[in-house]
TrEMBL record:
PANTHER family: NADH OXIDOREDUCTASE HCR, PROTEIN RFBI. It is an enzyme of class 1 (oxidoreductase). Residues 143-243 form the FAD-binding FR-type domain. Its cofactor is FAD; heme b. InterPro entries: Cbr1-like_FAD-bd_dom, FAD-bd_FR_type, FNR_nucleotide-bd, Globin, Globin-like_sf, Globin/Proto, MRET, OxRdtase_FAD/NAD-bd. It comes from Nocardia yunnanensis. Its EC number is 1.14.12.17. Keywords: 2Fe-2S, Heme, Iron, Iron-sulfur, Metal-binding, NAD, NADP, Oxygen transport, Transport. The keyword Transport applies. This is nitric oxide dioxygenase. One of its GO terms (molecular function) is 2 iron, 2 sulfur cluster binding. Belongs to the globin family. It catalyses: 2 nitric oxide + NADPH + 2 O2 = 2 nitrate + NADP(+) + H(+); 2 nitric oxide + NADH + 2 O2 = 2 nitrate + NAD(+) + H(+).
């Protein structure tokens, strides 16, 4: 795609995104056109579309921002295409979505902005996206969806559960990747979760799940999951993973359940003969939020290359935390816990300019930590994180 085509696509999309309610209006218009012109696709979507609308616009923005980086964008789209097989979508559904998106954008942009040249630019962009997704889906030989039976559900914190599943057949995924998950009580509401252990021959998965207040799905996963129920799991996604280069040092920063994909990578690294130095900063609001310190302590004690730095925003547990009045357990092999904002603490250690960096957690924490590190001198191209939608 040439730079003029990219510029035309970006300008029209930015004109939508720049307005306060632009993304919301665009998404509403897109779904209205799609379901009116192609009612047969309605069943692919959940009944309530509010969370879906937000994700749609963020996903388009993500792609539009990377149009000039095909080496990163095309593998991402191919993964998305393989994942979309779980809906049972075929080429004609892609055509319906593409046409509806273009109609919604054209209506929003108005005749002054939506010229013939802009129309052709969007055609070119949308075709590349759809063909990459369709091509990857058609070539894939793994199942479009896996079934996982819940074998354990443990609430490790108020509002945070560890769920273990056994898949009907093993799945190959790289430690650090994530996948979309659907639970029986929330049909068609797929949510991304990151396995906290590497892929294994028994097809076991472990997810760490925080219940988001007001969320449609995560509170049900945390509060109502029963052993024996069956979850559906889509194809693995994402570019985080253990680097092949065993000499390049690593910095990992994870908050809350963001520790899951980092811990999976650390576990995968323990199986290698040599590893570079790795510093992991694990964060939470309160000391009690650091629910996985025991495992991190075991990993740090057994592996000299690993240093784990616990960080919390508050030095005390909240009043509602029930602690039996006992002293909190001491875990060996960890650095002393620091108190403060995690991005500030990590950046306060230096520029980390010799490190490959991964940041995982809530979108606001990922952005803040990234900016702090960039300001401290970490080259942007060394910092990786998952898409924030
Ligand atoms: C790549 C990736 C990997 C992920 N891995 C995990 C994981 O391993 N474990 C895990 O628990 N979650 C993970 N998530 C988040 C998860 O996919 C859901 O977004 C989250 O559980 C909320 O879903 P929900 O249906 O409960 O909320 P929704 O109904 O989708 O959203 C309800 C409201 O909550 C807001 N919201 C959504 N997520 C958050 C959040 N994290 N913090 C604050 N507000 C939020 C929304 O903007 C919306 O306003 C991951 C997300 C991504 C993008």
């Amino acid at each position: 795609m040439d730079s003029r085509t990219v510029a035309l696509i970006r300008t029209t999309f930015k004109s939508v995104a720049a307005e306060d309610d632009g993304p919301e209006k665009l998404a509403r218009s897109f779904y209205a056109i799609l379901f009116t012109d192609y009612p047969q696709v309605r069943d692919f979507f959940p009944a309530a579309l509010d969370a879906q609308r937000d994700r749609l616009v963020k996903a388009i923005a993500y792609v539009v921002d990377r149009l000039e980086e095909p080496e990163r964008l095309l593998p991402f789209l191919a993964q998305l295409g393989r994942d979309h097989r779980k809906y049972g979508v075929v080429a004609e559904h892609y055509a319906a979505v593409c046409q509806s998106l273009k109609s919604a954008l054209a209506a929003y942009a108005g005749t002054e902005l939506w010229t013939d040249e802009v129309d052709r630019a969007w055609d070119e962009g949308i075709n590349i996206i759809a063909n990459t997704m369709i091509g990857a889906a058609e070539q894939e030989t793994t199942p479009p969806v896996w079934t996982g039976t819940v074998i354990e559900h443990r609430e490790v914190l108020r509002n945070l559960a560890v769920v273990r599943l056994r898949l009907d057949q093993p799945m190959q995924y790289a430690a650090g990747q994530y996948m979309s998950v659907q639970i029986p009580s929330r049909p068609r509401m797929w949510r991304y979760l990151s396995p906290a252990i590497p892929a294994n021959a028994n097809g076991e998965l472990e997810f760490h799940i925080r219940g988001v207040t007001g969320g449609w799905v995560s509170p049900a996963m945390v509060g109502h999951t029963r052993v024996g129920e069956q979850w559906l799991i889509g194809s693995p996604l994402g570019g985080l993973g253990v680097p092949r280069n065993t000499r390049r040092k690593l910095l990992m920063v994870g908050c809350g359940t963001g520790i899951a994909p980092l811990r999976a990578q650390l576990m995968a690294m323990t199986a290698r003969r040599s590893n570079p130095k790795v510093d992991v900063f694990v964060g939470g609001h309160y000391p009690c939020d650091l629910y996985d310190l025991e495992v991190l302590s075991q990993l740090a004690c057994a592996n000299k290359w690993l240093t784990v730095h616990p960080v919390t925003e508050s030095n005390e547990n909240p009043w509602w935390h029930f602690d039996n009045g006992e002293e909190p357990p001491e875990f060996p092999g960890l650095e002393p816990r620091k108190v403060g904002q995690i991005g500030k603490i990590v950046a306060g250690h230096g520029s980390w300019d010799d490190r490959d960096v991964q940041i995982v957690g809530a979108p606001s924490m990922v952005q803040t930590t990234k900016f702090r590190l960039m300001a401290a001198g970490t080259p942007t191209e060394n910092i990786r994180h998952d898409p924030l939608f």
